[in-house]
Amino acid sequence: MFCFQCQETAKNVGCTVKGMCGKPEETADLQDLLIHVCKGIGLYGEKLKAAGTVDRQAAHFIAKALFTTITNVAWDDDVLVQRIKEGLTVRDAVKAKAGAMPGALPDCATWSATDKQAIIDKAKSDEVRITAAQNEDVRSLRELLIIGCKGIAAYADHAAILGYEKDEIHGFLMEALASTTKDLSVDQMVALVMKAGETSVTTMALLDEANTTTYGHPELSTVNIGVGKNPGILISGHDLKDMAELLAQTEGTGVDVYTHGEMLPANYYPAFKKYSHFIGNYGSSWWHQNEEFQSFNGPILLTTNCLVPLKKDNTYLDRLYTTGVVGYVGAPHICDRPAGGAKDFSALIAKAKSCPPPTQIETGAIGRGVCAQPGAGSGRQGHRCRQVGRHQALRGNGRLRWPSQIEILLHRSGRKAAQRHSDFNRRVRQVPLQQVGLGRHRGNSACARCRAV
Ligand code: SF4
Question: Which atom of ligand 1 is nearest to the CA of 20?
């Protein structure tokens, strides 16, 4: 195992035995294989794109697959195996449309399996690992690009769920994935990393348009942090469409809705604030889930990251529900919505009715929210927007309106990106090849298995 995609990573170098997030080696391996399969899709998708077509079915798969591999999303290996099988089918469909490619093809374009054990065996092989590339600069630049693509994919997936898509984003993901299978110069790889930055901004703007057009502009808001007397459902993650459908389906049922952690921003959207049974936010951040999910007493819905692994003596596995890209062994999964329809949250509502109301852990309210329209609005809200919006825009919290501020932010983020890249590059170099990848589990003193040999 070698994973260094998040700031939790062991010793700020890389998780090589088990993830600091709790991710087991087997799960990390399967995620590496899923990305390997996506690279194969990218190769054929890039060829198709050069011929003038972006395959949206393949693009949707890539976005969801990359999203699946980010921190604290996928905990169910069977689901990952299923997604790999699905990816091979998608790849072969794009291949059929794109036609044969000249020359020797990389493994990701040709490897195939239908059997679970064959997939697990392949996932254990070093050729799908981050460390397969021996040149440190190549490894660094390829992985910087892949991590950038994961972020783009998550935003693109959220936007697509709301019906907003851009072929330039889909096309870039295919081009970027395909590039990691080719022998490119450092300049070419750096150019792709820079393009990933540009595409990230384009994708964030698309998601902002999707969210604000669908649910209104977020407002500075007072968020209740106490509890009501009814049983409740706690929702976390970032999927606003799930939030909208849950609120609509719980209205009038006597079941209240609360946000947790990542879903806190839902409290600022006019389309959600209008519901009287949307009580507010319960608890704090994701790293307090084990305690706060326990005391919430009712069902919990995880729509995206971050799901923290449950403790063995937890009391909430039977009331934890996952949906979308999230999966957890033993937790019921709410299926995707049918075309033109809504997800069915009736199981959660029925479960909530059999549970006691949440245990109060805080009282009062907090002032939160972003002013998405500095200078807009009227009366008190408008005044606060005008007062606060200017500063928030500078901090990157509000929607950016003025070119001068955008330039300042780009300058700052560019400087930070350069620092991060430097750090990232150093981290790759700090992990000698004999410890991971090609020399898998040889001489790694941090690994119990190696010490036992
Ligand atoms: S995602 Fe998990 S395994 Fe990967 S670097 Fe972060 S903590 Fe480590």
Answer: 7
Angle made by CA atoms 85, 207, 422, in degrees to the nearest 5:
75
pLDDT at 371 over 90: no
Q: If you measure from the C-alpha of residue 2 to the centroid of ligand 1, how many angstroms do you get, rounded to a whole number?
A: 9
Question: Is the confidence at residue 410, as pLDDT, over 80?
Answer: no
CA of 176 to the centre of ligand 1 (A): 22
99-114: average pLDDT = 95
Could you read off the pLDDT of 2-56 as tens digits, one per residue? 999 998 999 988 999 999 999 999 999 999 999 999 999 999 999 999 999 999 9
**In DSSP terms, which residues pair with 367 in a beta bridge?**
222
* pLDDT recorded at residue 372: 57
Domain boundary assignment for the chain: 10-213, 221-365, 370-432
How crowded is residue 7: how many other Cβ atoms within 10 Å of its Cβ? 9
DSSP string, 371-413: -SSTT-S-HHHHHHHHHHHHHHHHHT-S----HHHHHHHHHHH
Residue whose token pair is 């009501």: 228
- CA 397 remoteness from chain centre: 20
What's the CATH code, domain 10-213?
Answer: 1.20.1270.20
Task: List the alpha helices (DSSP H) in 111-166.
Answer: 116-123, 136-161
Q: At 391, is the pLDDT very low, low, confident or very high (cuts 50, 70, 90)?
A: very low
H or E segment and range at residue 224: strand 221-224
Give alpha helix (H) positions in 127-239: 136-161, 167-179, 186-215
Q: For residues 87 and 44, what is the distance between their CA atoms, to the nearest angstrom?
A: 13
Q: Which fold has domain 221-365?
A: Rossmann fold (3.40.50)
Pocket of ligand 1 (CB under 6 A): 3-6, 8-9, 15, 19-21, 23, 28, 71
